Amino acid sequence: MKTIQVFDPALCCSTGVCGVDVDQALVSFAADVDWAKQHGAQIERFNLAQQPLAFAENAVVKGFLERTGAEGLPLVLVDGEFALAGRYPNRTELARWAGINAVLIEMKAATGGCCGGSKCC
Amino acid sequence: MTTSNLQFLAQPPRFLFFTGKGGVGKTSIACATAIALAEAGQRVLLVSTDPASNVGQVFGLQIGNRITAVMAVPRLSALEIDPQAAAQAYRDRIVGPVRGVLPEGVVKGIEEQLSGACTTEIAAFDEFTALLVDSALTADYDHIIFDTAPTGHTIRLLQLPGAWTGFLDEGRGDASCLGPLAGLEKQRSQYKAAVDALADPLRTRLVLVARAQVSTLREAARTHEELAGIGLSRQYLIINGVLPGSEAAGDALAAAICQREAAAIAALPQGLSALPCDQLALKPFNLVGLDALRQLLSPLSLISAAPSARENAPIALQAPDLTTLVDGIAADGHGLVMLMGKGGVGKTTLAAAVAVELARRGLAVELSTSDPAANLVETLAETMTEAQQGALPNLTVSRIDPHAETERYRQHVLDTKGAQLDATGRALLEEDLRSPCTEEIAVFQAFSRIIRAAGKKFVVMDTAPTGHTLLLLDATGAYHREVARQMGSSGHYLTPMMQLQDPLQTKVLVVTLAETTPVLEAASLQADLRRAGIEPWAWVINNSVAAAQPHSPLLRQRARNELAEIDVVKTHHATRYAVVPLLKSEPVGIERLLELAGHSTERN
């Protein structure tokens, strides 16, 4: 199974609790990560404000920060290779990278109350 | 020493914590307590976190961040913890390894995240921890005395299991909003032992220190409730600096103070009235040196004001009044005026005084307040009534309820962000939402709606965001987005940060009292604003006894002590300043507010 690493921007007060508004993308992503982990995905998250060393020690991440600054985060690596930056992946992308069975995704979608039924988006 | 009748000193447990807002005399009382216990044969360790750090000065030696024996007092040792230095060390642990490795802008961003008041508090608690658990370090002492106490927020945070998962246990963070705990050094079991010791009434006594003033007593009542709620049930109350009744004779100001203090003590807030309470008299001398500290704990009745040789010398205070400052503000025709300072220094009253003074000149003014205190609402109520009656038709008053704003904000976050969290995560989020920043942000959001009016008229507010909050909000761009959303797509807009940085549009007045600790606290607020590129326009020293020219010997002594502090503000901190006198009567209504500003209308 592939390893997914998510390098978050500095998340202290700025994003959630103390921000002007709560970032809905973070909320959804936290739920998606939970879901993917339950299906066996290997996902690690690193917070710039708390584990800056993890950013400095990874050549890909360090190079990315040098080019774009912290504003370019989040950054997602799959097996150490660049996969996505500037936004959080959705559930489908996570599942694809992690190799989670497509049937499972559909099952989840069907019970998830989102686009349940046969006419799924 | 005659201290036997002081309740907080009776059968003291191992740990004694003195807590209260800056300037109430925590450190002096902690020192005096340490001396009293050591002289009674106990082995005592005194721990000070006072930024004024006068413990070393009191004992005439250098102490610093290591346990030092106090030669002048057998069996007494002392230790000073500098919370700012602790916070810096803590930041260095996290940021140090990546400095020079990651881009400078990124490193600065991380540092700002770790520059809030919470970080300082948690870093200081980190330093305490070793003293609260049994160890070789503390085995030699019967009592350990602290001149501060952790807040309920810090303790609750440390008690929550959710705060720890992913940090010390696994060494890996989740996308939680709990930055500060990440850099803690010690084992979770040690923090648990420390928190347990705090909550154990057999080991810990918490002494709330207050002055005989409605606002400080109300604050003490809040601290009492919060800490009692997490198990620190063994609490005592000290009302410090009470003006002896003997001073009232022949001095109208002293008589008014005595009356006000007696009224405040008679109407203690609920919760406090049930606590064992000691009153300590205002002293005619500076609390420096062993003899002075030994006398601090003498009971009220035994103090007689010792007349000093300089008693009749005039109090030489030549300082600008508030009217002079308002002249400078009025010159710009419109703009935002924000009063910033710690709780209880009188921001709301001064905001009202500035607003009334501007309105008196025929300028359009909106006074906006967030102070929930009842007597200040009265001030405004009376102001509003008079304004409506046509006394000052160009003055409007708006009020923001900080409690309601914060509650609305909390609920919004819990409903959105909290909706998908499990019980542990939700508990953590709820605690995060009880942090002091949350209220600041919620209130400031509400204010930012009013701020925009400052382009056309004067808007005077009794609060201001800290530099830390502004930087955090600005760094993420979240603020720009929010403003853009509110302004619609009209294109041209100014973010609050940009508006606050421009001295022509915004004037920040730092409010303080002419006492050591409040001045230091105000200076650190100023440093924080400067970090955000905002230069305070002026300082206002409120409730000055020196400016009131008292006759009572005790008040005259206090007035003389104030002069040194006023001088420090004038020469070190402020580009311009004003001194506002302590009034005989509460500044309620337009007439008295004008009097605060420097118009001599006080009726005798």
Structural account:
By secondary structure, chain A is an alpha+beta fold. Helices cover 41% and strands 17% of the residues of chain A. Chain A contains 5 helices and 4 strands, in the order βαβααββαα. In chain A, strands 2-1-3-4 form a 4-stranded mixed sheet, sandwiched between helices. In chain A, helix 1 runs parallel beside helix 4. The longest helix of chain A is centred in the N-terminal third of the chain and has 15 residues. The two termini of chain A are 27 Å apart. Chain B is α/β, with parallel strands linked by helices and 604 residues long. Chain B folds into 2 domains: 278 residues, Rossmann fold (3-Layer(aba) Sandwich); 275 residues, Rossmann fold (3-Layer(aba) Sandwich). Chain B is built from 22 helices and 15 strands. Chain B has an 8-stranded mixed sheet, sandwiched between helices. A 7-stranded parallel sheet of chain B has the order 11-10-12-9-13-14-15, with helices on both faces. In chain B, helix 20 links the parallel strand 13 and strand 14. In chain B, helix 3 crosses helix 5 and helix 12 packs parallel to helix 13. The longest helix of chain B is centred in the last third of the chain and has 21 residues. Chain B is globular and about 70 Å long. Chain B starts with 14 loop residues before the first strand and ends in a 7-residue tail after the last helix. About 5% of the residues of chain B have low confidence. Chains A and B meet through helix 1, strand 2, helix 2 and helix 3 of A and helix 4, helix 14, helix 16, helix 17 and helix 18 of B.
